[in-house]
Amino acid sequence: MGEERGAHPAGPSDEALMQDYQAGDLSAFDVLYVRYEKRVFSYLLRQIGDPEAAADLFQETFLRLHRSREDYDPNRSFLAWIFTIAGNLVRTEFKRRSSRLDERAETDVEHIGGGTPTDARAEQAEMADRIRAALDALPQEQRQVILLNKCEGLSYREIAEITRSTEAAVKQMAYRALLGLRNRLKDVV
Amino acid sequence: MDCKTAQMELTAILAGERVAYPPEAVESHVSGCADCLKARQEMEAVWERLDLLAYEPVPEDLRVRTLRAVHREAAMEGTVSAGYLTLRRLGSAVGAGILVALLYTYVLGQRVDFGYLSAVHLAVTAVIWSGLLVAVFCWMLGQYRQWGVHLGAASALGLAAMGLSLVGTLLCPGETFFDLWERSPLVNTLNGVVGAASGYLIFGFVYALLPALIASAVLGGRLKGRVWRNAMVAAGAFVLLLAPAAYLQCASLAAGLLGTWVLGALGGALGGVLGGVKVRQVWAQRAAA
Asked: What ipTM goes with this model?
């Protein structure tokens, strides 16, 4: 996930910004928004698949963050908190239209990534497409664990809190997810 | 160690997580197992390839829409948190407060005889009660939040609990409850040990507990976060709203007994709100599971 993954931005910590925001400094929200917009949007898009629905959930995530800012405990990781909000929205969305998303989860990965790469960049882009497709084909819970753990740097414990699960269950899920990715990407690894 | 366990541990090692087995034990298995060696190579390759995923750019219109929505809400809150309600909302709060006080008194009057109170007593009680209700409606219409307390939600909960207590009074008036209570052997024992006030303490506790529990289980969703603070405000609002009704029913009691009743009600209301919020959480967890 390129240049930003796991990076600790310069300036005040997220938690300090949240405290300023709780005290009424709206500019602190703007800073947090800039720090997290791509991460949250990417997470939602990969979880939901549908750009329009992801956009709606994206807006709702930040609105909920705003509305529940006073509930935020500064001793807790902001990263885990914002992904808890986004994760809850994803869960609700999945419940709402589970049948459609189940169909999507069954999407065959073969249709993506065709063509002959003409140079290294094209090859890399093709590989990224293959990985995205392989991720898409994972069951939603497994995809969530990989996205939060590998892409967002959250620990199993934090993911367990977000998914209302146990650390052991998350560990198992991560294993299965990686197994699934291995099977789907066997020809390129 | 079997292959599945070893590979699960390898996944955890890749993720930088604690492993359940000593790393040497995992290494010992993997180095002696062709399948796991191959699996490790593939897992590492996949893990590395995941780095190729780039964050998706946020469409400009979505960024503008989102920031505008949050800023708009913040601006609206700013108006309210300044402590002012629009004249229209204030009028609505006053109207609703007086209406509820009148309605409650009328309904209660069908069941409980408080004709023994002087007109002055009744008028003062009505004014205090209306004032409390107006304040509650102001909080609700303003949706104030202070120190992590959702004043609007807490007062709405208090109001709902007060309504439920009225229903309870109509279904099972205090005299009936006390008749049953005084015949109970437990009460005789309690009265002997603690004194007659114990009955009022427990009566107040139960009288407030049940409505607060039900109201919180249904409406307590917005009391999350600083639960204790929110619960105390909700319980306080409920008992304050209940106090005039209790006075109308129990004005003939000695002040000590009435005080004991209120004390019990405070405890019951707080317990009910906390219990209701907990019940709600358990329901939500079960629903999610």
From this structure: 0.79
